[in-house]
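Here we describe the complex-level prediction in full. Unlike the single-chain runs in Section 2.1, the two entities below were treated as one system.
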Amino acid sequence: GAGVSQTPSNKVTEKGKYVELRCDPISGHTALYWYRQSLGQGPEFLIYFQGTGAADDSGLPNDRFFAVRPEGSVSTLKIQRTERGDSAVYLCAPGAGVGLRWVADTQYFGPGTRLTVL
Amino acid sequence: AQKVTQAQTEISVVEKEDVTLDCVYETRDTTYYLFWYKQPPSGELVFLIRRNSFDEQNEISGRYSWNFQKSTSSFNFTITASQVVDSAVYFCALSSNTGGFKTIFGAGTRLFVKA
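The structure predicted for the assembly as a whole is:
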């Protein structure tokens, strides 16, 4: 996706391990969104940031998931005690954010991180 | 609650046929945005179009066209003269201010175009 990089592109881990997934939006969008796409399904919202703060984390499945965006640009999604059901592609997308006009802004997605929990 | 329904799970056509992918949405907001994305086998989500709720004009881009009808809450996508390279999963999506502009996706329609 234009202006977004995600690392790593692939991550294989064992059940119970801790993982961090990184999203680096190249341009200075105020908002940043995380989604999860399980096999055969559409992406599902996890959390979004307005600047440094999490404006809506209602999509995080449980307290093993946490995300930060300390400087308002790069964001890290953290998953503790991974489970096999966490296996999915994790996508991030920059956005203009609430209250701003969307005339010139469209939600592009990063290439995603494919997480496999064995 | 907001919802996007893509009733067609899979569609298979022969090259050069026209094909329409259906999308029905639900929202209580008066201002909202509708999207279509393409996800080829490589996996990336490719943005195709965004329409806002105040603009019901149909749009054509090459072989692609979109029919937005608020009266039926539908935003259908037609590919004219389909090609093998059109084979992919297509997602319809919705976002609005009430939801903080988070995007709600349909389950997707897998399109197979056979040579």
